[in-house]
Amino acid sequence: MIPGTASIRDAMQAIDRDVSRIALVVAPGGELAGTVTDGDARRAILAGTSLDSPAASIMKAKPVVAVRDMTDDEIVALMLAESVRQVPVVDEARRVVDIKLLDRMTRTAEEPVPVLIMAGGLGRRLGDITRYIPKPLVEVAGRPILATLIQDLAAQGFHRVVLAVGHKAELIERYFGDGRRFGVNISYVRDGRPLGTAGAIAAALPQLEREFIVTNADLLTRVNFGELVAFHRADNNDLTIGIIESTYELRYGLVEIDGTRVTGIREKPELRHFVNGGIYVLEPKLGKLVPADTRFDMDQLIRAALAQGFRVGCFPIHEFWADIGEPADLKQASSAYDRRATDPKT
User: pTM of the full predicted structure?
Assistant: First the structure.
């Protein structure tokens, strides 16, 4: 629970700390004022809302709640009817006495979606580092990049992994095997030649009979993949792109014009934009847009989806994220990821 004076940043930290994945905003008297979910916080990021703004500015002021004398069956029925995964339980004064989670109250939790990891790249930008080992086996903080990703997926409950391999595939297959020692079930698709960042989807599609996650193998991230899938479903997307907020400060004053007239000037403004984070959720029908055994990149797939009228959405990633593309990225990520793994404040 967080007080009404808490910021959106405070709410996000509370969400990340608690298994319920919801922040309960309480009034000074202890009564429930509203709720903030992970999705609420991420939509605030997309809207450009400052994370220092009050959490109350984005909370649901009339959230779905259960009352104390409701039975478990009634609470489950309420959550299913309202399409929510968690619900606060309140007393007669609207003070929170418990919180119920749908996954814990139903006998069979839904099987997590499969994950396709693109691990077939040549890794040329890393130079000599990838001369003898494939990029996914390059170590960061004492562990191969791909091992860190797979162990994180397993910890979040994602146990079906498909590895699309190509360059030095035998080394990757030998290291990971069937995935049992990592707590997952791994199957493989082999790229006979470089197929780009999306080309392997066509070959993997028979193993991906439902919505699935696609991620690059050279990413270090602490993104919550469950929230990514939930966001994808809530927005009824056919394709959801994980995006990263990036800011760039211009070295010069930005002059705003209308024809030959100057309408304003901003001195060294900080420009805000979003970049592709290399993590996606796709419906199987999107996979059918990928030609078989042909080089095809994700930007081509995204453009094809848009051209054919599919619903393409985005999911802002506020958690740690690092792309290991060049030697400098590797050095920086090794330091940052190791620090975040040992320091609970980061």
Answer: 0.78
